[in-house]
UniProtKB/TrEMBL annotation:
InterPro entries: CD36/SCARB1/SNMP1, CD36_fam. It comes from the Eukaryota. One of its GO terms (molecular function) is scavenger receptor activity. It is a multi-pass membrane protein. The keyword Transmembrane helix applies. Its main location: membrane. It is found in: Apical cell membrane; Cell membrane; Golgi apparatus; Membrane raft. The chain crosses the membrane at residues 9-31, 439-459. One of its GO terms (biological process) is receptor-mediated endocytosis. Belongs to the CD36 family. The lineage of its organism: Eukaryota, Metazoa, Chordata, Craniata, Vertebrata. Keywords: Cell adhesion, Cell membrane, Disulfide bond, Glycoprotein, Golgi apparatus, Isopeptide bond, Lipid transport, Lipoprotein, Membrane, Palmitate, Receptor, Transmembrane, Transmembrane helix, Transport, Ubl conjugation. Disulfide bonds join 236-304, 265-326, 306-315. This is Platelet glycoprotein 4.
């Protein structure tokens, strides 16, 4: 009788283990459904969701670090036509994006409209020196006038330069170069980022994701338009993706992330590079592909970005983007810092540049389940162009068109420990707990089932021998 009871107990244990294992197995798809539902709910941009809280105001402190290019042989360049030699000076750091989004309006078609206010506050403790540091830099006014005034009228430019005692290079403070000064030749304000403070980017109109979560944060319109008007080409004028602060949830490594940057007046894409752990949160790192700034000979999609065949050597120059069309015709060329991934000729015409992927690449660290960007580094170099002239004295020694680096910027942010803890508490920890329960039930159930089944077989064999 005791043997029978023991075997029955073991059979009951095996059945119980099987039930627990089945429950754990059932909970896996159920749990996945619960997780997906939670993410879908919290990713919608509407008051009360995690996405809205992160979207309305930047969830991390955003800094812009600037390195300016100091010309070390300005006199030799002017007098003998020597190749310019530069040395970067920085960082000079500013806190930016500290204003929340403004004029937020929820529209009936499940879109949200807003503007991004601009502001910059100098951070002396994170800088190599004060804003009053002097830098020998390319004269923005002279370079700009060179491109805007036709060669037939260079006698006018020559007169303007001599009358104002201007030159190709000048000594200016960091603050003047970045944020503006009154130029003696143009008699008007000039600066790399002039105007910036008290200005706004937008308005933007984006999808809230309420009707379709796969569209959340994707730009519907920018400045009232669904496409740009700068490039005179359907492809190059497309506004794709989000503003890169977040993306639709459930990212896949095989699919690139598309985003629009108003700073450079075009859409970009980034591809998956590696998985990382950021403050206890698993993230995917996406980098700009090297072909993003490739010449049209290597990447035909970039042909519509080539505007001037003379300065780009018949569109064979890689690594620079002429954005004059969206900058009031100012001869501004955007590149990665130190002409990373650019043509060698760019670094031969201006010496002292040393591109480094680790320091100069742009990346996004995105939490794959929610699509939230938790860390990023946007690195951009601002260049201007000048060239030879038979009339302008200070340009007579110049041999060829030169795309000259003025400053490069590293805009970066990372969620702090407090925000990371909140993110993990609201979402990650709940998901991990649910997954743990699923697999514990499955593991314990299988273990009990196998152990009881083996014990039952052993006991039955012993009982058979005794009988």
């Amino acid at each position: 009788m005791g043997c029978c009871n023991r075997r029955r107990g073991l059979l009951a244990g095996a059945v119980l283990g099987a039930v627990v294992a089945i429950l754990g197995g059932i909970l896996i798809p159920v749990g996945d459904s619960i997780i997906e539902g939670t993410v879908r709910k919290e990713s919608v941009i509407e008051p009360g969701t995690t996405a809205y809280d992160n979207w309305k105001a930047t969830g991390a402190t955003v800094y812009r670090q600037f390195w300016l290019f100091d010309v070390t042989n300005a006199k030799e360049v002017l007098e003998t036509g020597a190749t310019p030699v530069v040395k970067e000076k920085g960082p000079y750091t500013y806190r930016t994006r500290f204003f929340p989004k403004a004029n937020i309006t929820f529209n009936p078609n499940d879109t949200v409209s807003f503007v991004l206010p601009h502001g910059a506050i100098f951070e002396p403790s994170m800088s190599v020196g004060p804003e009053e540091d002097i830098v020998t830099s390319l004269n923005l006014a002279v370079a700009g006038a060179y491109s805007l005034i036709p060669k037939e009228l260079h006698v006018v430019l020559e007169n303007m330069i001599k009358t104002s005692n201007s030159s190709l290079f000048h000594n200016r403070t960091v603050k003047e170069i970045l944020w503006g000064y009154t130029d003696p030749m143009l008699k008007s304000p000039v600066g790399v980022f002039l105007p910036y403070n008290d200005t706004k980017d937008g308005p933007y109109n984006i999808y809230s994701g309420k009707d379709d979560i796969s569209k959340v944060a994707i730009i519907d319109m920018w400045k009232g338009q669904r496409s740009l008007t700068y490039w005179n080409d359907t492809y190059c004028d497309m506004i794709n993706g989000t503003d890169a602060s977040s993306f639709p949830p459930f990212l896949e490594k095989t699919k690139p992330l598309n985003f629009f940057s108003s700073d450079i007046c075009r859409s970009l894409s980034a591809s998956f590079q590696q998985s990382l752990n950021l403050k206890g949160i698993d993230v995917y790192r996406f980098n700009l592909h090297p072909d993003t700034m490739a010449s049209p000979t290597r990447n035909p999609d970039n042909r519509c970005f080539c505007r001037d065949k003379a300065t780009t050597k018949n569109c064979t120059l890689a690594g620079v983007l002429d954005i004059s069309a969206c900058k009031d015709d100012k001869p501004i060329y955007i590149s990665l810092p130190h002409f990373l991934h650019g043509s060698e000729s760019l670094r031969e015409s201006v010496l002292g540049l040393n591109p480094n992927e680790e320091q100069h690449e742009t990346f996004l660290d995105v939490e794959p389940l929610t699509g939230f960007t938790l860390r990023f580094a946007k690195r951009i170099q601002i260049n201007m162009m000048y060239g030879p002239s038979k009339t302008v004295t200070i340009l007579k020694k110049v041999k060829d068109y030169t795309i000259f680096p003025v400053v490069w910027m590293n805009e970066t942010a990372m969620l702090d420990d407090e925000k990371a803890d909140v993110f993990k508490e609201r979402l990650v920890s709940r998901i991990q707990m649910l997954e743990t329960i699923q697999y514990v039930l499955l593991g314990v159930g299988v273990s009990v089932f196998v152990l009881c089944l083996i014990s039952y077989c052993v006991v039955r064999r012993k009982d058979s021998k005794i009988a």
